[in-house]
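REQUEST ID: PR-0412
SUBMITTED BY: lab tech R.K.
PRIORITY: routine
TASK: structure prediction, single protein chain
INPUT:
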Amino acid sequence: MNDRPRPKAPVAPSGMARSSGAFDSGAGSRMKRSGEWKYDIGGMAPPLERGAIVDGFLLEKRLHQGGMASMWRVSRVDAEGKPAPVEGEPPLIMKVPRIKGGEDPATIVGYEVEQMIMPALTGHHVPKYIARGDFTRQPFIVMEHIAGDTLRPRLAEAPLALDEIAEIGIKVANALHDLHRQHVVHLDVKPSNIMIRPDGAAVMVDYGLSRHEHLPDLLEEEFSLPMGTGPYMSPEQVQFIRNDPRSDLFALGVMLYHFTTGERPFGAPTSVRGLRKRLWIDPVPPRALRPDCPPWLQEVILKCLEVQPDKRYQTAAQLALDLQQPEQIVLTRRAERIARSSQWTRLKRWFFALGAEPAEAAAPSATEVLNRSNIIMAAVDVDNASPELLDQLRETVRRIVLTEPGARLACVSVMRIARIGTDALTDHTGKSLHVKQLVGLKHWARPISKSLNLEDGRLTFHVLEAPDPADALVDFAKRNQVDHIVMGARGVSALRRYLGSVSSTVVAESLCTVTVVRASAPDVVPAEPVKQATPSDGIS
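STATUS: complete
OUTPUT:
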């Protein structure tokens, strides 16, 4: 979690720390610098030992000793040193930075950044924050202890199986999307900073280099060199941009490349000059190193590794959706490459990169990127809805997508199956019911596609087989980080009011905005995310 070595940097004449910055080459090497740091952090407590009590936490066992921090398993105790557990609290771990005279200030500032960001984070994809201590006594952060190891040991096993690569990508993308929704860009995404919970969810750790949209960026204020881990840094990080969430998707692309080929796409640079080469030199296509790499996986990886953020996936949720439905990925020239770009192309990129330092103000924040790159889910009952309702639903969806040029539209239909027993998979003519429903879904969406010219994989189709349509729709929306569900409602009846309806269940249980459409009086599309409930029935 904290295996990032920091380079030394020169000092200002006054003895105060000069802004310099640091990055890890990923190969254990350091940038050569002259001079020493002189950073006065005041009197520090002696090294901690097993059995010590720090602010009500008993140090039970040192679990990890890194170059930047020590990790201790701890438990709560009272003033007399007796166990004082808190009901419902998870196992705890204490992170104690290794700070002493002459230490690189980047370590100190990084610790302050993590102390500031972690209390603002919640959810299943981050360690639960418990407590912290400052430099006046003993600096530390107490957080949830995630059982298991990081993804770092998996690098030694690369290349991995293709289905496992996709599974890792989905898990990490979901974790990153959750983080970006909380206004945080991680900026140090790498295998050693990703843990997997027993239930399979990815957890992002180590926020020492992160940027929170609504908090001061101490690293930007105090340092003036790229910050990050060399092999995983995005081109915009090399150019001093720290607020773009698509930087994390670049780093995930580096991980997927490594897990696919067993090699790093940009090596392990040890200088800023080496880092800048990724602005004009593209990586060897994965299929050139691993012939069994499918075109769709190369498409995903190279899209993540695009130099310009606007050409990458715009959100981690869109990336996760593609990895879950690889057969619907639109293949471009990226998928066909078997060699690097020509010398002439690289020369043009090099010339363009000279002096092309983008302004941070021009880079979109995490909130801006997410707001303009929503996933819209149209729940369509192609078999049972009336033509009038299908037409009204289609027009409502078209208007919504029209107002969000970067949105992605997922058209979903549910094929109801029995809870017990077997179902007929074909109709009376022998045609597949699943395929028939998929064809009907595509036919319903064709006018939207033609009207809005939905290209580049912005339109996908999904037929779900489930005994309960409402549960299937809610589960799909949660798994794929859907931002807005649009669905239809059939006529009102006493029976539907008594038993409940699909649309009312979706409204009650979904975590996103839900717009319900009627054929006779369509709902107005809300300007702000507001759930719209109705006592009607049907998924369309």
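NOTES: Confidence is low (pLDDT under 50) at residues 1-22, 27-43, 522-530, 532-538.
REVIEWED BY: pending
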